[in-house]
């Protein structure tokens, strides 16, 4: 366990011992998380300043759909090994269907679709049928978890449809992670440290095309580039975001669990928290910015 933690810290863009806690930002974020009716954790890292904030950052939370980023990495690991081709043509089968409102699930059995388009559906639309198909193509949760463990990740794991992970699935659902690890994974992608610089670049570009662009993303001006993945189930709402901000790139991950408010509404308490955290971080790093986000009632 101690060896894995050391590996994870060493893999960060800048050495952990050089990082300094941003006490001013901590003081702004702590009351927001403390007021949440549930459990909330956040990890923030400003790459240029090399300052961080960690609040419940090593607590284990459900990933919900954020697990689709590790699934994408699992697929690209196969591509790097020559076992899959990014533009190869796949054949959809009805047996792949995960019931819901997914786009891929509306396909007829026998229809063809390129692997890169299935990847787009997973990361952009958060299509569950596409995601489970890609999880299988990556070698399943066992293979993805082996990659994560090999990179020093202690908490981040795929649970669903993965041998030996049933007890974890009962607690956390499809996947599990911590705010620090999910933010670190996003930073590794951005800085070219996932598999190869070329593959990291491709994954990062894919993560900049999120259809689900509310919450933290709407707390950033539209002209600023972001990469993200979010997750939502009844009792947990979360997101990990890399912001290519004018005064320096920063990454953060905010996750909640055991939420008292489980409504699927714009003013859900956890979603309000996600927006407040995103706006607070932006305002802290981009002092003097005149950006005002769209009010909740006017958002589409």
Automatic annotation (TrEMBL):
Keywords: Hydrolase, Signal. GO terms for molecular function: hydrolase activity. Transmembrane segments: none annotated. Gene3D superfamilies: DD-peptidase/beta-lactamase superfamily. Its EC number is 3.5.2.6. Residues 1-18 form the signal peptide. It catalyses: a beta-lactam + H2O = a substituted beta-amino acid. This is beta-lactamase. Residues 41-256 form the Beta-lactamase class A catalytic domain. Belongs to the class-A beta-lactamase family. It comes from the Bacteria. InterPro entries: Beta-lactam/transpept-like, Beta-lactam_cat, Beta-lactam_class-A. It is an enzyme of class 3 (hydrolase).
């Amino acid at each position: 366990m101690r060896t894995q933690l050391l590996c994870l810290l060493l893999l960060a863009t800048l050495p952990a011992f050089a990082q300094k806690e941003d006490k001013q930002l901590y003081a702004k974020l702590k009351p927001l998380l403390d007021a949440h009716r549930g459990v909330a954790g956040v990890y923030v890292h400003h790459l240029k300043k090399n300052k961080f904030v960690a609040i419940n950052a090593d607590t284990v939370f459900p990933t919900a759909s954020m697990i689709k980023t590790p699934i994408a990495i699992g697929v690209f690991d196969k591509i790097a090994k020559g076992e899959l081709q990014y533009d190869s043509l796949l054949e959809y089968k009805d047996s792949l269907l995960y019931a819901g409102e997914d786009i891929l699930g509306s396909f007829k059995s026998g229809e063809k679709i390129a692997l890169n388009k299935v990847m787009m559906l997973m990361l952009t639309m958060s299509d569950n049928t596409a995601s489970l198909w890609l999880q299988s193509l990556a070698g399943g949760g066992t293979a993805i978890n082996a990659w994560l463990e090999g990179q020093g990740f202690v908490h981040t794991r795929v649970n669903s449809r993965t041998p030996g992970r049933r007890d974890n699935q009962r607690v956390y659902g499809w996947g599990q992670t911590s705010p620090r690890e999910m933010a670190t994974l996003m930073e590794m992608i951005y800085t070219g440290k996932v598999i190869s610089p070329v593959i990291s670049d491709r994954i990062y570009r894919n993560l900049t095309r999120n259809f689900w662009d509310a919450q933290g993303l709407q707390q950033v001006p539209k002209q600023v580039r972001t990469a993200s993945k979010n997750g939502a189930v009844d009792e947990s709402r979360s997101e990990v975001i890399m912001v290519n901000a004018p005064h320096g790139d920063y990454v953060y991950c905010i996750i909640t669990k055991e939420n008292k408010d489980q409504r699927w509404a714009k003013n859900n308490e956890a979603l309000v928290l996600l927006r407040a955290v995103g706006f607070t971080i932006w305002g802290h790093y981009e002092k003097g910015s005149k950006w005002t986000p769209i009010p909740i009632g006017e958002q589409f």
